[in-house]
Amino acid sequence: MSSITVSVPASDNSILDNGQGVIDPDVYFQINQPPANLSEFETKLSAFVDLHKEQGNKVVLITSGGTTVPLENQTVRFIDNFSNGTRGATSAEYFLEAGYAVVFMHRQNSIQPYHRHFTHSHLGFLDYFEAKEDGSVQACPQYADKMRKVLLKYSEAKKSNRLLMLDFVTLSDYLFKLQAGTKILSRLGERAMYYLAAAVSDFFIPSQKMVEHKIQSREGGLTLTLDQVPKFLKPLVSNWASKGLIVSFKLETDTALLVPKARQALTRYGHQVVIGNMLKTRKQTVTLITRESEKVLSLTPEQLESNIEIESKIITELVQIHEYWMSSGHTK
Ligand code: 9Z3
Questions:
Q1: What is the pLDDT of residues 39-58, one digit of tens each?
Q2: Probe residue for ligand 1, chosen from 282, 285, 310 as the CB with the greatest number of ligand atoms within 8 Å
Q3: Chain segment 237-289, per-residue pLDDT in tens
Q4: H helices, E strands: number in the chain
Q5: Relative to the CA of 275, which ligand 1 atom is closest?
Q6: Closest Cα to atom 25, ligand 1: which residue?
Q7: Could you tell me the pLDDT band of residue 15, with boundaries at 50, 70 and 90?
Q8: Residue 231 pLDDT more than 60?
Q9: Which of 6, 46, 288, 316 has the greatest number of beta carbons closer than 10 A?
Q10: Cα atoms in the 13 Å half-sphere on the side-chain side of 215
């Protein structure tokens, strides 16, 4: 069976890369097209940040969900990953409860704060309602209490303008918006927190190496060569978001790698917190790592049974770390 190679290794592009096949983040932005809605994104975010700056609020930028990696410029196929955005959406609710204004930068159509209680449960959305004889639609009595509680919290977040929803789809979309977004949030100095929970692809096909049209199947199997995505945490920490508290996530499937890799990230990029989680146990246990400390946060089987969420513990810890960061410029 013949095969099609749709891209060439980045090391063939020696002017642009660092000799190891990885291009510099700055170069990435020069050779890729920004998303069409970038200026709309910036306008909305600027207004939100300026409002909360004026009000003296703390603001967290949450990234949530996975990025797609297109295989064609006119995209029919793409590579995706497992993340559905539960971590980000759940965390957004706890940050709002803790008094933060939240920028929820999420993968389009991934799980959303508050909505998640009804869109991603064992019931279908319409199962929560009943059509009445008088022509009205009502929440079913057995769900009405929970619906009301969630709806009140959601309405409050909207009314006080403390939840801004912004979306991305592709890796490129995400990276351009991450750069623009963190630079805008940096106006808040230490009062900003960056909570990078999105599952961002490590590999991609640069647009100039991508085929334009749909890859045809008649030529047999398909061989893909993906370039490594530049390490964006580096400029994010040193230039784009330098004063805020930066929390990144490290996902592993091999337990032995989790803490060493998280520590390596802290040393390499110089930010404040890495939250390590394992694919299979991510809803039950995480390890919160700073340069000085390492803390395992876990839910007991009873807590899991009573629907306590691990994000409630993560956010409690982060709020304290952020308080300390704002008052002293350090993590404990
Ligand atoms: C995470 O580790 C998140 O906790 C999850 C959440 C993606 C596991 P879900 O969306 O899952 O609730 O289904 N996010 C970061 C994953 C990541 O790509 N980290 C990079 C890495 O591990 C560093 S930025 O190398």
A1: 999 999 999 999 999 999 99
A2: 282
A3: 999 998 999 999 999 999 999 999 999 999 999 999 999 999 999 999 999 99
A4: 10, 16
A5: 2
A6: 250
A7: very low
A8: yes
A9: 288
A10: 22
Q: Which residue has the tokens 């918006």?
A: 177
Token duo for residue 330: 């350090």
86 close to ligand 1 (CB < 6 Angstrom): yes
Please list, in sequence order, all residues whose beta carbon lies within 8 angstroms of the beta carbon of residue 192, skipping any fewer than 6 positions away. 58, 59, 60, 61, 185, 186, 241, 243, 244, 245
User: How far, in Å, from the CA of 250 to the mean position of ligand 1?
Assistant: 6
Mean pLDDT of the chain: 93
- To test the pocket of ligand 1, the residue of 81, 87, 285, 311 to mutate (highest count of ligand atoms within 8 Å of its CB) is 87
Single-letter amino acid, residue 148: R
Neighbouring residues of 60: CB distance < 8 A, sequence distance ≥ 6: 95, 100, 101, 102, 103, 192, 193, 194, 195
DSSP for 148-217 reads: HHHHHHHHHHHHTT-EEEEEE-BHHHHHHHHHHHHHHHGGGGGGEEEEE--B--SEE--GGGSBSSPPPS
Using most ligand atoms within 8 A of CB, pick from 79, 251, 315, 318 the residue to mutate for ligand 1: 251
The reply to whether ligand 1 has any atom less than 6 angstroms from the CB of 199 is yes
How far is Cα 175 from Cα 177, in angstroms, rounded to an integer?
5
Tokens of 100: 């933060």
CB distance 249 to ligand 1 below 6 Å: yes
Whose structure tokens read 């990885």?
22
pLDDT digits (tens, 9 = 90+) for 119-134: 988 899 999 999 999 9
Residue 185 Cβ < 6 Å to ligand 1: no
Query: 210-224 burial, b if ≥16 CB within 10 A, otherwise e?
Result: beeeeeeeeeeeeee
CA-to-CA separations, 73 to 76, 196, 207, 279, in angstroms, rounded: 9, 27, 7, 31
Instruction: Give the global pTM.
Output: 0.94
